[in-house]
Amino acid sequence: NAGVTQTPKFQVLKTGQSMTLQCAQDMNHEYMSWYRQDPGMGLRLIHYSVGAGITDQGEVPNGYNVSRSTTEDFPLRLLSAAPSQTSVYFCASSPTPATNEKLFFGSGTQLSVL
Amino acid sequence: GENVEQHPSTLSVQEGDSAVIKCTYSDSASNYFPWYKQELGKRPQLIIDIRSNVGEKKDQRIAVTLNKTAKHFSLHITETQPEDSAVYFCAASKPGGGADGLTFGKGTHLIIQP
Fold first, then answer.
1. Which residues of chain B have a CB within 8 Å of the CB of A103?
2. Rounded distance between C-alpha atoms, residue A31 and residue A54, angstroms
3. For chain B, which residues lie within 8 Å of any Cβ of chain A, measuring from their own Cβ?
4. In angstroms, what CA-CA distances link B57 with A87, A102, B20, B84?
5. Tell me: the pLDDT tens digits for B94-103?
6. Chain A CA closest to residue B46
7. Residues with Cβ < 8 Å from B41, sequence gap 6 or more?
8. β-bridge mates for residue B64, sequence order
9. A101 vs B93: CB contact, 8 Å cut-off?
10. Cα→Cα distances A24→A33, A55, A74, A79, Å
11. CA distances from A33 to A12, A68, A80, A96 (A)
12. A21-39 as b/e: b if 16+ CB within 10 A
């Protein structure tokens, strides 16, 4: 099993550009989520999904969209990038249905918005 | 929502000594308390977790204690080794997960001095 796979690892955007961060897991986990990690701030939940076709907002959802068309994939879209979205983004999945317990994290995407 | 405070932000100990990281939480409904370790440039990884119906849990050199009355929990690492150097995050979660289901502390940078 590859676990949780994120692409790209690094990305530089200009203000106003859009992009999609990809996340895929091969562990058949129903629960998937996106976090952002900023220095001194810990990890903050952006969006999460408890299964295909179901998504919901986390603590900091503004400026981000998600979709969950399959169990495996959970892409994160930045609609119009802003410098405040410069961060490290982690996708995570959980083997426990409808919970965020025992999270498996991807390797992260370091995003810079100029 | 839940608020998790973590102390200290930086902890330096001599190799072989013990390290203790403390967290407090605000929501008495929280019942799941994981600890994640993040090495420099890597993904967070779950190292130990505890539920509110258990006061203490051990796994080799690491242990977690929980005081529900005081709403605090701690990570104990004994016989510290160089590979224990990392940032450690505590978190608290209420039943069922959800938008505010898992709240992270801001992290403790543990430095093991040779």
1. 34, 36, 44, 46, 102
2. 10
3. 1, 6, 9, 32, 34, 36, 42-46, 49, 89, 93, 96-102, 104-107
4. 34, 15, 14, 19
5. 876 665 568 9
6. A102
7. none
8. B57, B75
9. yes
10. 11, 15, 6, 20
11. 22, 11, 21, 13
12. bebbbeeebbbbbbbbbee
Shortest CA distance from B49: residue in chain A? A102
Is residue B25 within 8 Å of B105, Cβ to Cβ? Answer: no
Q: For residue B91, which phi and psi values (nearest 5 degrees)?
A: -155, 160
Question: Residue B81 pLDDT > 70, yes or no?
Answer: yes
CA distance A58 to A23: 17
Nearest C-alpha in A relative to B95: A99
**β-pairing, B72-77 with A64-66?**
unpaired
DSSP 8-state assignment for residue B101? S
pLDDT at residue number B2:
85
Q: Around Cβ B88, how many Cβ atoms within 10 Å?
A: 24
The model's pLDDT over B8-42, given as tens digits with 9 standing for 90+, comes to 999 999 999 999 999 999 999 999 999 999 999 99
Place of tokens 């879209």: A77
Q: What is the pLDDT of residues A55-107, one digit of tens each?
A: 999 989 999 999 999 999 999 999 999 999 999 999 999 988 777 889 999 99
* Amino acid at residue number B88: Y
Q: What's the pLDDT score for residue A55?
A: 94
Rounded CA separation B38/A40 (Å)? 14
Both tokens assigned to B14: 């001599």
